Amino acid sequence: MSRISHGDSIVDRLTPWLLPVSVLVLWEICTRAGLIEQRVLPAPSQVAVAFWENAKNGTLAHHVLVSFKRAIAGLAVGGSLGFILGVLNGVSRPAEKLLDSGLQMLRNVPHLAIIPMVILWFGIDETAKIFLVAVGTMFPIYLNTFHGIRTVDRGLIEMARVNGLGPFAIFWRVVLPGAMPSVLVGLRYALGIMWLTLIVAETISASSGIGYMTMNAREFLQTDVVVLGILVYALLGKAADFATKLIEHRVLAWHPAYHGSGAVTA
Amino acid sequence: MLKRIDSRRDLAGSDDSDVVTCEAVPAPLGKSLKLEGLKRSFGQRKVLDGLSLDVPAGQFVAIVGRSGVGKSTLMRLIVGLDQPEEGRVVIDGEPVKGLQQSVRLLFQDARLLPWHSVLSNVGIARTPGWRDAALEALRDVGLADRLNDWPAVLSGGQRQRVALARVLVGRPSVLLLDEPFGALDAMTRVDMHGLLERLWLQRKFTTLLITHDVAEAVALADRVIVIKDGRLTFDVDVTAERPRHRADPHLAALQARILAEV
Question: Which pTM does this prediction carry?
């Protein structure tokens, strides 16, 4: 019995890798055979070599670190602003009246369209990129926080009042946890926008970062480095998604969709 | 209008100073509740039209009436979630306004916070020493072994028992039950009746139970009242001894009388 299930699990684990690995092999064969020109698309092995060289001399780590810092700084600023505004407007009707329509107008401006203005305001230094990421990540978190707070079950709030909870306790123990699933949807959405904004900002105006690395490589027709840059972006995006999943499992452990055993350990 | 005095009840509970209690038995929690000419309308519709009711401390009253006669509105007025347009609520001789800490309401749905464990839900008010109080209340409702579970994994009856435990932690003087067993299956409901009766006999909180089920009303209550057109139209004492038997012909006859009035 155990041998069969063991064998099953190996097959199960390998199945998802079947398609990507065959694509890589086919790609390698095509470039080696000259069916694809190296100027158009380098072979996977060349990308691997480019990775090794850039990793060895530290340029890759440097650029990744710079990009990562920008992304986190922008998300921290935009995310917390969006969250605070979402909570404020979600809790207070007067605040919503004052701020919401203005925010909705701003939200509908594609934030990448203001890049020329941003370069005029901040030049091409760090502030410009952090500002753009902040603007891009603020709105999904604002919208989802606002929506989450407004859709908290009124019955639960009533129950809390009857059981003697004050407004502060109701906010911390009922409203905020109730809004959390929605806030995290906003966070996941914001992470996608975060990388997208950063790629565009770094390719337009930067002297470091992965976007700069790929743009620079394009100037010298180093297609292997360009592909490497794209792969790094994909990996960073995947890592960000994984991080949110971890947060969701922790914060939403109570949610029927996230727990298997149904027991609270804490 | 329809004032009745149950002499047995007056002897048993209304005057706390004369009641001698030994250490093991908790002191009766109940306080008298008086509703004076309560009026509440929503738009054109008069839901409560001058409703008055006098409940001595510790009495168990069942309120029967068709849907939409204002039974739930009445509960919301007593607990302080809503204000009457006219009339007042008097608890223990004092007219009250706003949310009442001595009054607790058990809703039809359990309304547990899904992000808190069972224990944490029961101790939601976080009063000093809430853990011990919550654990004790969970023992009272027979769910002490589920204290660390999420509410999502409990059955409907278990959830309602957790909600009952949460109400008990507040040590209410007046307990309002808004059709708390309406959504439960027949077997679970009978269990809940037994549990509620036992807890009430122990603590003697003044109890108002809304129900559609007249059999439930006569099985549990000292007194059954009927609300119709926003007023109290029928009021009867149930004098059968406890524990009561559902097959008791006296109760069946009473049940038929009440049904005729609804």
Answer: 0.80
- A163–B153: do the CB atoms touch at under 8 Å? no
DSSP string, A83-130: HHHHHHHHH-HHHHHHHHHHHHHHHTS-GGGGHHHHHHHHTTSHHHHH
Q: How many CB pairs under 8 A join A and B?
A: 61
Contact present, B102 and B173 (Cβ < 8 Å): yes
Residue A30 belongs to some domain of the structure:
no
Best of B115, B162, B168, B169 to mutate (most A CBs within 10 Å, chain A): B115
Task: Provide the token pair at B179.
Answer: 């059709």
Q: Is B1-12+39-102+174-262 a domain of CATH 3.40.30.10?
A: no
pLDDT band at A56 (very low <50, low <70, confident <90, very high): very high
8 Å CB contact of A173 and B125? no
What is the C-alpha to C-alpha distance for residues B127 and B111, in angstroms, rounded to an integer?
19
- Scanning every residue of chain A, which has its alpha carbon at the shortest distance from the alpha carbon of B118? A264
- Number of domains observed in the structure of chain A: 1
**With 60 as the cut, is the pLDDT of residue B188 above it?**
yes
Residues B246 and A74: their CA atoms lie apart, in Å, by: 69
Query: Is pLDDT larger for residue B14 or for residue B250?
Result: B250
B150, A259: Cβ pair inside 8 Å?
Answer: yes
Whether A69 shows a pLDDT value over 70: the answer reads yes
β-sheet bridge partners, residue B237: B223
Print the domain residue range for A153.
Answer: 47-251
Sheet with B45-55: list strands edge to edge. B45-55, B33-42, B86-91, B94-96
Could you give the residue range(s) of every CATH 3.40.50.300 domain in chain B?
Answer: 1-12+39-102+174-262
Q: Which residues make Cβ contacts (< 8 Å) with residue B126, sequence separation at least 6?
A: A169
* A window 172-191, beta carbon within 8 A of B: 173-174, 177-178, 180
Pairing of strands B33-42, B45-55: antiparallel
Are the beta carbons of A203 and A215 closer than 8 angstroms?
A: yes
Nearest neighbour of B113 by CB, restricted to A173, A255, A263: A173
**Contact call for B115 and A155, based on CB within 8 A:** no
What does pLDDT average to over chain B? 87
**What CATH number is associated with residue A113?**
1.10.3720.10
pLDDT(A262) > 50: no
Provide the token pair at A177.
């946890």
